[in-house]
Amino acid sequence: LNVSDREIAREQLHFPDEKLHVVSNGSDTDQMRPPTVTQRNDARKLLGISNDRPIVAMVGRLWPQKDPLCFVEMADRLIRDGVNANFCLIGDGELRGALEEQIAQRGLRDHVFLLGWRDDVPRLLHGIDLFVLTSRWEGLPLVILEAMACGVPVVASNIPGNRDAVDHGRTGLLAEAG
């Protein structure tokens, strides 16, 4: 259980405190730690983006829970407000086609990239400048812990699970879901 799940189990399901234990997630700090300059440069090459813009990324399945369409909308708003950055979605899933369509319709192909499923996420995290998670619901997302361990600033939706990982204003920022 995470802290939010414990509260639900206690308050809504009426489990006694002595039967509830929070077991916190963690990340492999041998892989997940701030990168050296060489690791950062190598990760930027792995991302396959050939310019010097800051990189904002999200890692997760492209399906409704993770709300990747919200990520594309966010990127669109920021670009229209003059933010010159790249936005990467790392992952794959049922919403890929809808995302490709939105990216094309909004004219974002030079700024928003769908990198697909990757098995080198620990290395890729070393190349990004800001991690964003737009999820509608979560347990306790390990990818937030991994990004933090790599020294990447985090902005996440203000939902149970994310709130267990991000202390708003101290270890990252929380924004209303959607």
Please identify the structural class as seen in this structure.
alpha/beta
Q: What spatial order of strands do you see in the largest sheet?
A: 3-2-1-4-5-6
Distance, first to last CA: 25 Å
Number of strands: 6
In percent, how much strand structure appears in the residues?
A: 5-15%
Helix content: 25-40%
**Mean of the pLDDT scores?**
92
- Could you describe the largest sheet, including whether it forms a barrel? 6 strands, parallel
Number of helices: 7
Unreliable runs, pLDDT <50, ≥5 residues?
none
Radius of gyration: 17 Å
Order of helices and strands: HHEHEHEHEHEHE
Coarse shape: globular
Q: What attributes characterize this protein structure?
A:
6-stranded parallel sheet; 178 residues; 7 helices; alpha/beta; globular; 15% strand; 34% helix
Overview of the structural elements:
This protein is an alpha/beta fold and 178 residues long. The protein contains 7 helices and 6 strands. The chain has helices spanning 3-11, 37-47, 68-80, 96-105, 121-125, 142-149, 162-165; strands at 55-59, 86-90, 112-116, 130-133, 154-157, 173-175. It has a 6-stranded parallel beta sheet, sandwiched between helices. The longest helix is centred in the middle third of the chain and has 13 residues, at 68-80. The model has no long low-confidence stretch (mean pLDDT 92).
